[in-house]
Amino acid sequence: MASNEKLGSKKIENEEVNENFVTRFLAFFNKYQNIIYGVVIGILVIALALILFNRFYLQKKNEQASAQITYPVSMLMAGDSTSLNLALEGDDENDGFLAIADNYKITKTANTANYYAGLCYLKLGQKEDALEYLKKFKKKEDVLWYTCQTLIGDLYDDQGNEAEAIKYYEKAIKGNDPYNTPMALFKLGQMYERQDNWSKAYDAYQQIEDNFYAEYNKMSIAQYKERAKSKSSK
Fold first, then answer.
1. Is residue 32 assigned to a domain?
2. Distance CA 163, CA 169 (A)
3. Does the structure show a pLDDT above 70 at 41?
4. Per residue in 77-129, pLDDT tens?
5. How many domains in the chain?
6. What is the extent of the structural domain holding 171?
7. Distance, CA of 12 to CA of 5 (rounded, Å)
8. Same domain for 182 and 114
């Protein structure tokens, strides 16, 4: 009997709590309903604007940029200095990577144009410009992005900036590209060797053996791994 009374009392208390909550909520809603409606309408307007922007502006820009980039890509593939400059600057009829990156800034193609512009500058030996544009390349295409991090690491290595080189090589090895990843691991191992951090160098070479055995043999990593092992044990 006493147990039933406790259950009944608890049920009444829960009902009172629920009623109080509903009452307080209704009172709050009635007091601030204009603000609440305004916020909801504002969110809906923003969402609709984003949908319309994507459908009628961004998609059109993407299509235009995709059509424009064909010419500079063909010039990049040609590879000679004249073609590389045309790839960057374009000609009277075609935009180059620089114009595409500037005119279509929010598109995926503009992002890719930054990467290709960096490659052009790199091939032309203009390393500061290459670094500027490669660092503008955002992580939207994983394979290219990880390769880009390796190139940035190389440029910092050329500058003698070991800390930045290591930072970008460490980003590069997070990809799973069968060529770029073991190459970045090897370069990272070499950087660690320069710093006499032989245990980390050994770990980098070990990762190549564990995950990219074909490249491990092709790149003759065993000799570097054994040297790092012997140095780290001293």
1. no
2. 10
3. no
4. 998 999 999 999 999 889 999 999 998 887 889 999 999 999 999 999 999 99
5. 2
6. 139-234
7. 11
8. no
Same domain assignment for residues 155 and 93: no
- CA distance linking residue 110 with residue 136, whole number of Å: 10
Residue count of the chain, please give it.
Answer: 234
Token pair, residue 44, equals 């809906």
Alpha-carbon distance 101 to 83, whole Å? 18
What residue type is assigned to position 204 of the chain? Answer: A
71 vs 62: which has the higher pLDDT: 71
Least confident of 12-16, 33-37, 87-91, 105-109: 12-16
Q: Judge whether 127 lies within some domain.
A: yes
d(CA 223, CA 182): 15
Report which DSSP code applies to 212: -
- What mean pLDDT, rounded, does the chain reach? 83
Q: How far is CA 230 from CA 38, 221, 224, 234, in A?
A: 70, 14, 10, 7
Last residue of a domain, one of 91, 116, 135: 135
Amino acid in position 199: S
Are residues 191 and 211 part of one domain?
Answer: yes
DSSP the chain: -HHHHHHHHHHHHHHHHHHHHHHHHHHHHHHHHHHHHHHHHHHHHHHHHHHHHIIIIIHHHHHHHHHHTHHHHHHHHH-SHHHHHHHHHB-SSSB-HHHHHHHTTTSHHHHHHHHHHHHHHHHTT-HHHHHHHHHH--TTSHHHHHHHHHHHHHHHHHTT-HHHHHHHHHHHTTS--TTHHHHHHHHHHHHHHHTT-HHHHHHHHHHHHHH-HHHHHHTTHHHHHHHHHHHHT-
